[in-house]
């Protein structure tokens, strides 16, 4: 489970911002997780709202970037290429400010706190703590270019592993690559326990869905993805996957090219299509059973199918799924249904979590299958003087009940709504009027000439 995520100086998140998934109070009707050796519980779903360009997507992107750094810094980053970060850019000395990220999570019944700070060239600090008896304990700390300091409880070849450390690689990444059992398990949590779904990785998500579909068929058991597929009621009765023919040399070259670009830009690049499979959707109608190419389906159907793999992975293994713009190209009802799967204790026995950004305010209402409480709603707002994003929870506001959260949000009760510039509106009206007058003036000579002729 993810308990908390903290970030400073990433994209529009200039100052330190923190997202907490700790519940304000227990609620038996939702699939809450227990924080070991404490009275705290975690919420199964967390929504982030805000106007366009307010920075809500940057919260998900910061989580994705931390995950990318943990998985890639040792094996994939250029040893002399520095740190591919994205600091806040709206200040003259942006290179002088460190980027810092930290995640607090539960793995195998133990609470961990891991984070690091960096500049453009190197990792400036890195730390890992655990709470085996409810109190914080150091596993390792790293500062500057010196060797990490280790706690007594961190056993193994930790000092020898430190000899392989580069200025721009994380010790956690190095230790995992060298087979350290505990640190490898923590890296594995970032890999499989923290799942990120954005438009940039749709093809990868679709491939993941296909692989799960094929795996379930190979094991000759009921397809576990079909209930999720049919839940959407988009008219799709199944999925047909055909092997695609492609030259091995071409496939290898394209895979190397894809890896190069993704390493260069931190994974934020889109590769559409697959050389391995052709995906078709199966429809059962009165006249028979027919297969359509996936590209012939609506964008909403494609989005839903692409989400099946990550959703199933999260629910099946108790992972944390982070989704940017969950409601993009999906009907509001489907967005609500998807989130409600995580809320349901029976569907979500492993206490998986979903963190998502959205514009659809109906998820705050009471007329859907979803009921989000105040401790599950966060907002982003941008300071127009500085361009910096602030992240804050709905629970900061004193509200007696949540019966009309949607209406209160839309009227600006909590902020985080678009600012409508009346002066700009008036200027637009004046410009349109002037453009029309100029057009009419330009037409008059031609009209007069035609009449004379």
TrEMBL record:
<feature type="domain" description="ATPase AAA-type core">
    <location>
        <begin position="46"/>
        <end position="364"/>
    </location>
</feature>
<dbReference type="GO" id="GO:0016887">
    <property type="term" value="F:ATP hydrolysis activity"/>
</dbReference>
<dbReference type="Pfam" id="PF13304">
    <property type="entry name" value="AAA_21"/>
</dbReference>
<dbReference type="InterPro" id="IPR003959">
    <property type="entry name" value="ATPase_AAA_core"/>
</dbReference>
<dbReference type="InterPro" id="IPR027417">
    <property type="entry name" value="P-loop_NTPase"/>
</dbReference>
<protein>
    <recommendedName>
        <fullName>ATPase AAA-type core domain-containing protein</fullName>
    </recommendedName>
</protein>
<dbReference type="GO" id="GO:0005524">
    <property type="term" value="F:ATP binding"/>
</dbReference>
């Amino acid at each position: 489970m993810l308990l908390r995520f903290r970030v400073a100086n990433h994209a529009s998140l200039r100052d330190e911002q923190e997202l907490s998934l700790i519940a304000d109070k227990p609620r038996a009707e939702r699939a809450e997780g227990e924080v070991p050796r404490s009275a705290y519980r975690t919420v199964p779903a967390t929504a982030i709202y805000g106007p366009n360009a307010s920075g809500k997507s940057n919260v998900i992107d910061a989580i994705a970037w931390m995950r990318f750094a943990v998985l890639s810094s040792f094996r994939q980053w250029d040893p002399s290429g520095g740190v591919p970060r994205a600091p806040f850019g709206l200040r003259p000395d942006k290179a002088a400010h460190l980027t810092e990220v930290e995640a607090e999570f539960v793995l195998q019944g133990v609470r961990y706190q891991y984070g690091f700070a960096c500049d453009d060239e190197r990792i400036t600090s890195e730390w890992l703590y655990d709470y085996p008896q409810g109190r914080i304990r150091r596993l390792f700390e790293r500062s500057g270019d010196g060797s990490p300091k280790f706690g007594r409880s961190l056993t193994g070849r930790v000092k020898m592993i430190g000899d392989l450390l580069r200025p721009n690689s994380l010790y956690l990444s190095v230790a995992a690559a060298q087979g350290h059992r505990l640190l490898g398990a923590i890296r594995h949590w970032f890999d499989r326990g923290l799942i990120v779904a954005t438009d940039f990785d749709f093809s990868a998500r679709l491939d993941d869905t296909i692989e799960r579909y094929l795996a379930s068929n190979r094991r000759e058991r009921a397809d576990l993805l079909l209930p999720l597929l049919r839940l959407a009621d988009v008219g799709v009765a199944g999925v047909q996957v055909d092997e695609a023919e492609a030259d091995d040399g071409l496939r290898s070259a394209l895979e190397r090219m894809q890896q190069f670009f993704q390493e260069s830009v931190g994974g934020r690049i889109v590769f559409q299509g697959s050389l391995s499979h052709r995906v078709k959707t199966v429809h059962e109608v009165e006249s028979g059973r027919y297969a359509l190419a996936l590209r012939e389906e609506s964008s909403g159907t494609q989005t839903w199918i692409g989400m099946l793999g990550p959703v199933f992975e999260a629910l099946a293994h108790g992972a944390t799924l982070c989704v940017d713009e969950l409601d993009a190209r999906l009907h509001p009802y489907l967005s609500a249904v998807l989130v409600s799967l995580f809320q349901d204790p029976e569907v979500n026995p492993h206490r998986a979590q979903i963190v998502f950004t959205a514009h659809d305010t109906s998820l705050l209402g009471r007329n859907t299958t979803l009921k989000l409480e105040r401790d599950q709603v966060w907002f982003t707002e941008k300071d127009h003087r500085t361009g910096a994003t602030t992240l804050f929870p709905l629970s900061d506001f004193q509200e007696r009940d949540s019966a009309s959260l949607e209406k209160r949000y839309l009227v600006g009760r909590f902020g985080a709504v678009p600012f409508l510039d009346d002066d700009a509106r008036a200027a637009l009206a004046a410009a349109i009027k002037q453009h029309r007058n100029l057009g009419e003036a330009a037409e008059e000579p031609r009209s007069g000439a035609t009449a004379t002729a």
